[in-house]
Amino acid sequence: MKIGVLRFSAIGDIALLLPLLRAMPEKPVIITSSLGRALLEDEFDDFVVLRSKRLRDVFAHIAEIRRQRFDVLLDQQNNDRSRLIRTFAGARRTYCHRAKLLEIPAFERAKILFEKSSLLGTLDDRFEAKPKNYIVLNAGSSPRWISKRLPDAKWREIAGVLRKRFALPLVLTGSADEADYIAHVASVIGAPVENRAGKTSLVELKHLLGGAFLTVTTDSAAMHISAAMKTPTIGVFGASTWKSVPFGPWNVALFDHTVYPDGQPPVPTQVCGNYYDHVDIREGLDRLQDFLA
């Protein structure tokens, strides 16, 4: 049986699929973007890569997919472009999300599609303690979502708690187009820190996160990658919904209980606000204590 899994973007959403892709009985062909391939090429062998969003390239992409003669095609993107692709892909069976599932947490929604196709094995929730080498602080997110950025004072507070509790080196990460912002965070954090923002490929970032003892991160691709690599991960949420929390008992979502006293996640907003002032990193550390022994 030849299986294709389609997901072009975003990087975090592709990383979210990793536990599911790894649990498939045989490796699928990944239908993705060049960034998706860059993230997954150390684990998967076969890709069909969409060169651009131009209509000419989309139809060339469809022709390449048809040549694959897929028995099953799982559309995890579920937008107009992927709908066009799966309609003409020539697969014997195709699966996509129904609109009513969009309110379900992201990982559970993705899991339902794999289960619906009967192509999901046992998810690997085994955990092996990470070496106490370093802790990653991912201060970045998409530059379009600066509302996800924590205040400088909150990063200083987090760094202080982590250094006092673990006395491990700190590594800052972020994308190349956030380099100036991450350099600013490094300058105000109040502790020695190695700045790796924009200095790694996606696979290098993946293994940097995979080798960390702990990751503390904004709602970002790094959060999903870290969790997929079974690194204890604390995702700090405020302007976005923690329904996007990744798979694994080794990760937790933190939010400001003063801003959200009922624990209900917000409608995501790009408007900056005081979403993080009362977030307490110690809450996340206590909830992950079994993974940080």
Which sequence of strands runs across the widest sheet? 8-7-6-9-10-11
What would the principal axes of the Cα set say about the shape? elongated
Return the CATH class of the largest domain: Alpha Beta
Instruction: Give the uncertain stretches in residue-range form.
Output: none
H/E topology pattern: EHHEHEHEHEHEHEHEHEHEEH
Going by CATH, the homologous superfamily of the largest domain would be: Glycogen Phosphorylase B
Instruction: Provide mean pLDDT, rounded.
Output: 95
User: How many DSSP E strands?
Assistant: 11
| Spatial separation of the terminal alpha carbons | 43 Å
Share of β-strand residues: 5-15%
State the major sheet.
6 strands, parallel
The number of helices is 11
CATH architecture type of the largest domain: 3-Layer(aba) Sandwich
User: What Rg is obtained from the alpha carbons, in whole angstroms?
Assistant: 19 Å
Number of domains: 2
Structural class: alpha/beta
Task: Specify the helix fraction band.
Answer: 25-40%
CATH topology type of the largest domain: Rossmann fold
Can you offer a commentary on this structure?
With 293 residues, the chain is an alpha/beta fold. 34% of the residues lie in helices and 14% in strands. The protein contains 11 helices and 11 strands. It has helices at residues 11-16, 18-22, 34-40, 55-68, 80-87, 106-116, 152-166, 179-188, 202-210, 221-228, 281-287, and strands at residues 3-6, 29-32, 47-49, 72-75, 93-96, 135-138, 170-173, 194-195, 214-218, 233-236, 251-254. Strand 2, helix 3 (34-40) and strand 3 form a beta-alpha-beta unit. The longest helix is centred in the middle third of the chain and has 15 residues, at 152-166. The model has no long low-confidence stretch (mean pLDDT 95).
